[in-house]
Amino acid sequence: MRNALGCGVAVGILALTSTAMAQEPTPPPTEPVVTQPPKANATVTTQTTTQTATSNNAGAEKKDDGTTDHSKVIGHFGVGYFGVTAQPIGTGAAGGVGRGTVQVPVIGMRYWLTERFGIDAGLGLNMFSSSSAAETAGREVTVDGPAVLAFALHAGVPLAFATGKHYKFLAIPELNFGYATQTEEAQNVAPGAVAPGDIHRTGLRFDIGARIGTEIQFGFIGIPELALQASVGLNFRRRVWHASQEANAPTTPADISSSQGATDFGTTVQSDPWAIFTNNIAAIYYFP
User: Fold this and answer.
1) pTM of the model
2) To bridge 152 with a disulfide, which of 21, 91, 124, 125 should be the other Cys (CB 3.0-4.6 Å)?
3) Which CATH number fits domain 69-129+137-286: 2.40.160, 3.40.50, 2.60.40, 3.10.590?
């Protein structure tokens, strides 16, 4: 009897334990953890990338492309004020001419056909007249001064035999030709009187030679179109002063004339007609 009761109790305890184990809840599955980089690290990476790109762009901008200032003006006209030429002209009486000069400002152009070969051309012009008036005993007397016409021509062939980034060395064979004329007519001739013949005064100038020097362009400050040229040279110069008076009897029974001449040969600084600032520098501006 006791044995049967003990077996029953044991079977009951075993049944309860199995039921409890069967009803124990299963824990939920664990979600995977995703690790994200800190935002601060992302910002640093972006800044580093931006700085690297900026540095590369700056390096590209500073890189020299090898283009010279001279190459930028090939096929373009350059203009400039090339100074004042002292043009000879006769003065005084027809029978004893004196030496005078007329100042002729020269404006010129330079055109580069190729990198080595160019053409220079310049023109100077001066025209002036004068008059004076005086009143005596109620009578006004007007005297016209002799009018003067003077001009100068310049031609040259600039040769660039060496070039750099902002400069070039030049040799320039050149010639200059100038002429001046003046006519003086008799003034206030009395009625019935014979006026003397007109007096003609002229002057001639001819230069031929060559210069050597340098032309600096201001590309290093962003204006390669602006250039300054300085040079020295060797030339031959011939100048003539002349005066004559037409025959007009009885005051001028025969033609009268006289002349003077001068010949020079030697070295020169950059002047006539290449002069500006200190007589040895010329400025040229090239059109874009």
Assistant:
1) 0.69
2) 124
3) 2.40.160
